[in-house]
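Researcher: Let's try something more involved. This one mixes different molecule types, so please make sure each is placed in the same coordinate frame as the others.
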Amino acid sequence: MSNIIDLKLFELVEKIKKKEISSNEVTKAFIDRSQKSKKLNSYITENFENALQKAKQFDEKPDFNKKLPGIPLAVKDLFCTKNIRTTAGSKILENFFPTYESTVTQNILDEGGIIIGKLNCDEFAMGSSNETSFFGNVQNPISENLVPGGSSGGSSSALAAKLTPATIGTDTGGSIRQPASFTGTVGLKPTYGSCSRYGVVAFASSLDQAGPMTQNVKDSALMLEVISSYDNKDSTSVDFKRGQYLKDLNENIKGKKIGIPKQYRVDGMPKEIDELWKKGMKIIEDNGGEIIEINLPNTNYALPTYYIVAPAEASSNLARYDGVKYGFRSKGKNLIDMYEKTRSEGFGDEVKRRIMIGTYVLSSGYYDAYYLKAQKVRRLIKNDFDHAYKKVDAILTPSTPSSAFKIGEKTNDPVSMYLNDIFTVPINLAGLPAISIPAGHDKSGYPLGLQVIGKAFDEQNILNIAYSIEKNINFKNNINDWWIN
Amino acid sequence: MTIDLKTVKHISKLSRISIDDNKAKKLSDDLNSIFKFIEKLEELDTEKIEPLTSIAETNLKLRKDEIKSKNIREDILKNSPEDNKDFFVVPKVVE
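Model: All components are placed in one shared frame. Result:
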């Protein structure tokens, strides 16, 4: 039998169901590899002992009707996990132990999944390289000193390095799709309202969405089935009939109309990315799909809009960290002094920067010029997509304008860091689903991704298109375990 | 527009984040480059456009107003930096 860690999630599920392997064997295999991989710094908190106990319990009383029967999974440290430390990558939550479970991780537990640990991420998910985490940089298993993307950088690193068979991240402006693209893995951001935000540490509430990060499209369909649910604890959760994403997964894209937005052909984009995009178009045409050029005229305004809306919501959401109810507290001369010192010492530079942008754009006299203006432009961006979807079933773009960059390369210039998300941010603003799949390599051998964007609640369609592209590309990640001595 | 040191200090006050003078200068530079980038939106005429306040344009559901969690005082206080078993404790506010 092949090595356990080399099996796909769906293969592990099948083998456990057929009693060919036990949950204990699988859990142990991923924990062993995680222990040998500390150099990657993918984990913030390990839950290994507890997970091994749970695996033994599962094997004693197995329930093979579950979708994740005894499957070990590490998750992004933005999901509240009952009695397991949850930090959001911040000093301010360094010792926070939630007394409740997020709905998304509860769904994983209900389907038989076992949490083996909490994965590193940018502080409060604010970042594109995992370099804003209080718990340090994360290594990309592709090459030493390369960022794994962000904010779900611990998730993408752990997944690509096979420390977990699948994982979940959150995506506010690209935080699932960009790290997936940087590590040669599959990342899906579902439609806003598909996965509950209950118990997910809030960044920008009108944009945040949880989603699966997996080795392949089939695993993505399986994970989406597990985590997507209507939840009355989240007032923006949408009560729609969820698909049987795995059962209905097929590669038939005959007659599908796929839009190519000309505005995504940005200046200075590497030739390899343009070629990759063309390769994607050819695959679609070869498989009976039709390529149609579309117009998303307000694309250039998406990032400026995002950098008003997201910080504004963040400044409001992060007001709760005041050193009183939970989290870090610093000493102060009086109450106000305590608040100011707590927040100054507890938050990192990027988080402070965004809180201040948000506070400014919401402050008296500036609200109309910035926040209201951004909400109006957000409408224009959404209208662009609505208009395009009268002509096409889905849209194909590159996932990112470049491959992974070196640690430290972009930390001094916030705007150049923000430009990483140029292809992913518009999708969050419009609330649409999108999937990034690995599709090739650049000249350094670093992975590059393609993004398929769907209509709202049309996850099945983008999964199927991604499945078809995946079958035709046959992507292989070049990982040589350089971090293991 | 430019965000000068005085404005940075004002925002820092509003945000309840203390900033020392060295950091304020760097922050003012960062904020200026970010706002220069944001101000691209001024090119667009949005006079007649309705703001998009929520992407999930569904009606909020009503629910019964009933207590679901009881006796959770310990849970609530569990993560507090300082408490006296019944209440959160903060620095003295009233003389």
